[in-house]
Amino acid sequence: MQDRLQHRFAQPRLLQQALTHRSFSAEHNERLEFLGDSVLNLAVSALLYERLATLAEGELSRVRANLVKQDTLHGLAVGLQLAPLLRLGEGETRSGGRQRPSILADALEAVIGAVHLDAGFLAAQALVHRLYQGVEINPRMQAAAKDPKTELQEWLQGRRLKLPVYQVEAVQGAAHQQTFQVTCEIPELGLSARGTGPSRRAGEQAAASAMLQSLPSRPTP
């Protein structure tokens, strides 16, 4: 895996943790995934800033949403052959977790977070650039449908408000069949909404969707 990533870990345990699902061990990859999500967004944002110099902010956000969505990350994880190296609990393995898109996408984000902790942002950014070398990036991607998180972000940015804050409130169910309860908050508007999903990512999208339902009735700040 280090050869495929083109990164030799000074702290190999970070890579091991990045590939560990919560069903396998208490020392799992969710914190690394949280970090990797932010690193990925920054690295992709910088990439788009360089490549798509004529696009406006909202259009760049839409292209980025296409590049960091679960389907895209799942494809990149398959290309890296992450699945055979995932450390999963017995129940999760039996239920097909090794091929589950959400688990593979989350593990890839965790790997990016692990590289960032191991060698800094520039190393993680270089990894992201290598991962996306074979992914077509062009202005036409802006026509793709917006996901709820992107739509909410654009609504807030259009009104010069701060981005929403997402927080996992609870994780319920067996390790191989979990439900994530996520809260989406917009402190400046005093708004909060909840959503649930089979992964943190899905829970955030559900919470953002619930938040969007409450926005049309709000006066424009």
How is this fold's topology laid out?
Blueprint lengths: L1 H4 L6 H7 L11 H22 L5 H12 L1 H10 L10 H5 L6 H19 L1 H11 L16 H11 L6 E8 L6 E8 L4 E7 L2 H15 L7
Antiparallel strand pairs: 1-2, 2-3
Helix pairs in contact: 2-7, 3-4, 3-7, 3-8, 4-9, 5-7, 7-8, 9-10
Described by strand count, sense and barrel closure, the largest sheet is: 3 strands, antiparallel
Could you tell me the mean pLDDT? 89
Strand content: 5-15%
Helix content: 40-55%
CATH architecture of the largest domain: Orthogonal Bundle
By CATH reckoning, the class of the largest domain would read Mainly Alpha
Distance between the termini: 49 Å
What is the total tally of β strands?
3
Q: State the secondary-structure class.
A: mainly alpha
Treating each run of at least 4 consecutive H or I residues as one helix, how many helices?
10
Could you say what the CATH topology of the largest domain is called? Ribonuclease iii, N-terminal Endonuclease Domain, Chain A
Shape: globular
Strand order of the largest sheet: 1-2-3
H/E element sequence: HHHHHHHHHEEEH
The CATH superfamily of the largest domain is identified as Ribonuclease III domain
- Which stretches are low in confidence, meaning pLDDT under 50 for 5 or more residues running? none
Number of domains: 2
In a few lines, what is going on in this structure?
It contains ten helices and three strands, in the order αααααααααβββα. The protein has 221 residues and is mainly alpha-helical.
Features:
single chain; mainly alpha; Ribonuclease iii, N-terminal Endonuclease Domain, Chain A; Double Stranded RNA Binding Domain; 2 domains
